[in-house]
Specification:
With 167 residues, the chain is an alpha+beta fold. It has six helices and four strands.
């Protein structure tokens, strides 16, 4: 499968079987995230890999996971992230997004489904998982064996002429 085929095949899965993600697949997904580029190679991102019933219970206090058997809470240490000198923009969200994207596509290559979750209360996640004040939970990537075939808006994209502007 080519990379563009991989990108085209991936969708946000919102239904999973109860089959767990194998340890080997989880490690491959985490390795893809670990190898992700970050601003100035500061590597401010950490991931909490949730596989236990207790861990999912803590997530469910403020979010949903659609029955996935693996949840990757992607966190960023804002104090370690690169900051753009021109305007002081801290790129921690960007670094966390790059890590999440690489893990998402690795899971897709392995035949697993994913859904990128940003609908959660970061204060609850921080408290439940004991995150230090400077570490922000940015998103949650749920991963599992898909029980659905696609999502309603899969493949719906604006035309290229609306997406790109040449200069």
């Amino acid at each position: 499968m080519t990379y563009i085929d991989l990108v085209r095949s991936r969708y946000s899965s919102r239904s999973y079987t109860d089959e767990p993600v194998s340890e080997g697949d989880m490690q491959s997904i985490l390795e893809a995230g670990r190898l992700a580029p970050t601003g100035k190679n500061s590597q401010p991102v950490t991931v909490i890999a949730v596989t236990s019933e207790d861990g999912f219970g803590r997530i469910h206090k403020c979010s949903r996971t659609f029955g996935a058997t693996l949840a990757l809470i992607v966190c960023c240490d804002r104090d370690r992230s690169w900051v753009r000198g021109f305007d002081g923009k801290n790129i921690s969200d960007i670094d966390a997004s790059i890590v999440t994207t690489q893990m998402m596509y690795q899971a897709t290559e392995l035949g697993l489904g994913t859904c990128w979750i940003c609908w959660f209360d970061p204060a609850v996640i921080s408290e439940e998982f004991g995150l230090p004040e400077n570490v922000e939970p940015v998103n949650i990537l749920v991963v599992g064996h898909k029980a659905d075939e696609t999502s309603p808006n899969h493949g719906v994209r604006k035309p290229m002429e609306e997406f790109v502007r040449y200069a």
